[in-house]
């Protein structure tokens, strides 16, 4: 049996957008959680590995709601990755 695939809309903000050279893309993936998706993206290129490294503070939101690595993904979800921000 093969894993289900889903098409996701990805958004990158701030320093991640700058490091990856894009602010959005669409991917088809078998990743079923935010953490699995991040691991898959890290494996794509050196730029992805550096920008999304597990030791770096990177936040994620699914459909504009904050999400952790165990958040389940569904076909059509929008997943945004961004560095933590502080207000003043």
From TrEMBL:
The keyword Manganese does not apply. GO terms for cellular component: molybdopterin adenylyltransferase complex. Signal peptide: none annotated. One of its GO terms (biological process) is Mo-molybdopterin cofactor biosynthetic process. Keywords: Nucleotide-binding. GO terms for molecular function: nucleotide binding. It comes from the Bacteria. Belongs to the MoaD family. This is Molybdopterin synthase sulfur carrier subunit. It comes from Ottowia oryzae. The gene is moaD.
